[in-house]
C-alpha cells in the first residue's frame, strides 16, 4: 500500500510516496472510543505521535553522543569568548 508522505508540517507530498506497513497497537479502549466518536483518523494520529517520539529519541541520542564536544565548546567560549567577538558592532 502506497500513500503520500505526511511532512512534519502535516502537509502531504504526493511526489514522495511512502510505503506503509500494517501493524497492531494496543490503545486504551476509552480513548479509542472517544477518537472514533469524533472522527479522529487513528492511523494518522498514531503516526504523528510516533514521529514525535522518534524525533525526541533521536534528539536525546544526538545530545548524548555530542555532550563532550558541546561541553568543550562551551568551556572554550567561556575561556576565550566568542569567535570574532571583537568585530561585533552591537
TrEMBL record:
Keywords of the record: Toxin-antitoxin system
Q: Which residue intervals are annotated with compositional bias (Polar residues) in the record?
A: 1-16
* Cross-referenced InterPro entries: Post-segregation_anti-tox_CcdA
- For region Disordered, the annotated ranges are 1-26
Q: What is this protein called?
A: Post-segregation antitoxin CcdA
The organism of origin for this protein: Paraburkholderia elongata
Amino acid at each position: 500500500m502506497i500513500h503520500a508522505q505526511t511532512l512534519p508540517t502535516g502537509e502531504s507530498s504526493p511526489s514522495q510516496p511512502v510505503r506503509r506497513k500494517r501493524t497492531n497497537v494496543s490503545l486504551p479502549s476509552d480513548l479509542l472510543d472517544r477518537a472514533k466518536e469524533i472522527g479522529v483518523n487513528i492511523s494518522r494520529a498514531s503516526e504523528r505521535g510516533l514521529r514525535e517520539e522518534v524525533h525526541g529519541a533521536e534528539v536525546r541520542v544526538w545530545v548524548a553522543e555530542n555532550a563532550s564536544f558541546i561541553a568543550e565548546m562551551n568551556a572554550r567560549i567561556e575561556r576565550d569568548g566568542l569567535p570574532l567577538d571583537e568585530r561585533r558592532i552591537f
